[in-house]
Amino acid sequence: MKTKSSTSQLVVRNLVVSVKTKHILYGVNTGAQSGDLLAIMGPTGSGKTTLLNAIAGRVQSTSGEITMNGQYFNKHLRRRLGYVLQEDVFMPSLTLYETLYFTAMIRITESVSLKDKQTRIDDIVKALDLKKCLHTVIGDFFVRGLSGGEKKRANIACEFLTDPDIMLIDEPTSGLDSTTAHNLMNQLKNYATQYNKTIIATIHQPSSQVYHMFSKLLLLMDGKVAYFGKASEALNYFERIGMPCAIHFNPADFLLALLSTDDETSKKIHEEADRHKKFENVCEQNPLSNGQHSHVNHSYINNSDADNSKAGLRTGGSAVSFDDVCVVGIDKEETSVHSHHAWPTSFWTQYRMLTWRQFRQSKGRILHKYEVIESLLLAVLGGILYFQTDYSYKTLRDKMGTIFFSVTYWGFNCMIGTVTGFPAERGVIKKEREAGAYRLSAYYAAKITSDLPLILITPVLFYCIIYWMSAIGDGVLFATFLGVNLLFCTVAQSIGHIIGTAMPDMKLSLKLVNTYMLFSLLFSGFFNTHLPDWVKWAKYLSIVHYAFGCLNILSTEGMPVLWCNTTSAELNPTCTGNTTIITIADVLKDSGIDCPYFCYTASLGILFIVLRVLGYYVMKWKR
């Protein structure tokens, strides 16, 4: 269900983009209108991708204007843009159909029926020849899935679903063989002409067949315009300034070689562009004029000082002037966006679909068979080592060891599992958020609720085994014991989420996880029972301390007093003789467990809430 767009016109005038003191784009002038396939070519580092990012609003321009039908771009107008990144980033565990279905449900307004959304998916799948791989997983480095060409078309298909008036595509033929590249560009050309769309694509080194599909061509050289006009007239222009192309030579290869030559040639190209070339204007024969004549600047550019003074640049920074151009009759109704809502769908729809996708993406990672087997084997091993341990002063330390082992394992497991899950998601979330697909709050809420049941399944199996094998307690205590452990897992997951969000470097993230967990173990009360006064406060920063204390109180609740005997009297200062008794409170206090169990449980609950809220703001800060 692709719709034919009303005629639209994009104009970029005197665009300057700088990062700190470095200029990337110098007074760039260009434009395109409905039905155009505008190719942006130039050597690596010439500013092609930066120009697309500036048009899409993902890079802040230093000065200049970007308008659509005479209106400055804003958040609503940019929803009429589709942007296909060079890197094809997807959730690797989803199939192609699931990816398209999610995009349709999250980015197409809710006023469109589910049937019409499905029709749109079917039309685009057919147009881009994706039928045979529709139910194939996207895949990644570890899992075989779609080929490079299929991923590229899938990337384009996701943007086509939103039915944009203007499509920006960064290197659509990158990594494709010549036949696949030609077919893809042919599909894009047909899409532009058939549905009255505007396509602006950066192309690095197209074949001659692909080159002749371009309706307009923008050549960038060191961030400056070397040529802008009809692609079919580019060779004639360079021949007139003394740079002819050899017969039967690929025009694209010739132009790229020309733009990558020595300083003398580049200087001549810029001088000729500034002084002698009359450039084609994007408003020629503009159907928006409704019978009126568009006012087009046809004068030769003899000196660009005036333009450059506006842009804050030196002479020679621009190749074409757009001053006083495109004064046309514009229908204000046609310039209105498709939807004036801040988001294409409601919070509930976004939350529901994000939860569905996150669950499908995380299920294979969290519940991987090797993860489950590892947990079950360790539970059985721990159960064998502490099998049916009775309660006595001699064995109480063993009981504590059982709990310490369990808490330590799941602290590391939940944190590392959460941190390592971020690389597969970070690029996708960044791409979708920059496209304005959904609220950050909807994603965060969906991630919490979708991962929660998955991350708790394996701990339940683990504790069902080790609890009964090591005789930690009775059936009445089991539910409470399990609940505290699962609460601890969610707190550990929250810390992993903050670290994974704040640190884009996986190696650094894992280092932080290991450092914090080892810190938590040292101050848990199991290794060091007599901390110096000046460092006792540090135990309150240890999540293992809270879980370890709470679980030990629960497991020893109701135990009878312990009698000292001659072989163990020296182990506890309370023992002064054979008849002296030791209470459980005395033993726990020696391990630094000196609060009621509800204090430890409440502390874990408060940590869970605080860390979840903090995690949202860290994600908002890092977006």
From TrEMBL:
Its membrane topology, per UniProt?
Multi-pass membrane protein
Please give an example of a GO cellular component term from this record: plasma membrane
InterPro entries recorded: AAA+_ATPase, ABC2_TM, ABC_transporter-like_ATP-bd, ABC_transporter-like_CS, ABCG_transporters, P-loop_NTPase
Primary localization class, coarse: membrane
Q: List all membrane-crossing ranges.
A: 370-388, 400-422, 443-469, 475-496, 508-527, 597-619
Instruction: Report the sequence similarity comment from the record.
Output: Belongs to the ABC transporter superfamily. ABCG family. Eye pigment precursor importer (TC 3.A.1.204) subfamily.
What is the protein named?
ABC transporter G family member 18,ABC transporter G family member 1
